[in-house]
């Protein structure tokens, strides 16, 4: 094949029976990796890593009434223990901004895209299991493993999202993407139920609370690795489309590095795609920071215990399961863009409400969790499916690498703002309210995106509703 650079290569899809079979296998990678995203990133590991870092800095863990105010020092740079996980996410994203486009270019040129997906998943899962050994004051190991896990998650999702374009027609993508996200929320929630039972009943099985948390964290890696076997066996590899095929692995790597600059240069030919990416960068940074910071905010600012945090995220997970399916149906009638805009308005009210939550009051926190779950699934699922319509054929992984640089586990601007505002004020309340700007800017930019023009510029088939 030759590289046309136009994205006008006609799409060829499997027949309906084969598409449904591969789609069912594809859903299960959402189910698999959501264990890491939920149990590790959203609930257990950030507060646990903060407690390890506080013991290293202050000799004790902090409380809302008596916080740890002594900084750690990394390469001579003072770091607040309470901001440490947020800074790790920021640092991993800065590296991802360089690595992910290379991963995407490699995936588009590889004849073994499925194998690349599962290989990255299993490396990330191994790092996740290794978090079991983070204990005492060993915060450095925790930082390293969290860094590796985040990079592998983001890299695998570049490949995973690109595969959506191979197994679903334009009219199917909102529904397929929404079902994938919904199954992910369900899977992550079910594992959290098991973890909740272990953490709450640790005395019954002869474990300390800390050991129960560490086992729960490691279980997410086992879950991630185990369920990845379903897409490994259920998906099939396909030859590259609209790119120059390279016979040797070394040749693919060299071409992938060079393609990073070509992608960035040629992306200017798709202004609506770029505008959507910029809008997504802002509003998704807000979404991701709310997700990642919610456990830290609830525990350190509002004084919620570990069991409450798990109940909160379970509510978010299971409501998001229904929310993703609901918003998928709404998008089928109104279009993805209008549905996402409506969700962003709700996000603004969520952040404002979070600022005013009282300390040690469980019910308001749980009610807010219902609203977060309602819009979370729809925002993420529809953003993925809408963007899939805007990328040139045969270049899906390259363009999804740019998308994943702002996706879950790799958000950087929001986490940086949240961490810096907390460090300057020693309070998470002004940090959470600062996130409003991300939703407002994202809303304004998304208003200017013309979906029909973006699809036409990319040379793709126009769906009935967009």
UniProtKB/TrEMBL annotation:
Topology class, membrane: Multi-pass membrane protein
Entry-linked SUPFAM superfamilies: MFS general substrate transporter
The name this protein goes by in its record: MFS transporter
Keyword Transmembrane part of the UniProt annotation: yes
Alphabetized Pfam families for the sequence: ATG22
Gene3D superfamilies tied to this protein: MFS general substrate transporter like domains
Stretches assigned to the Major facilitator superfamily (MFS) profile domain: 272-466
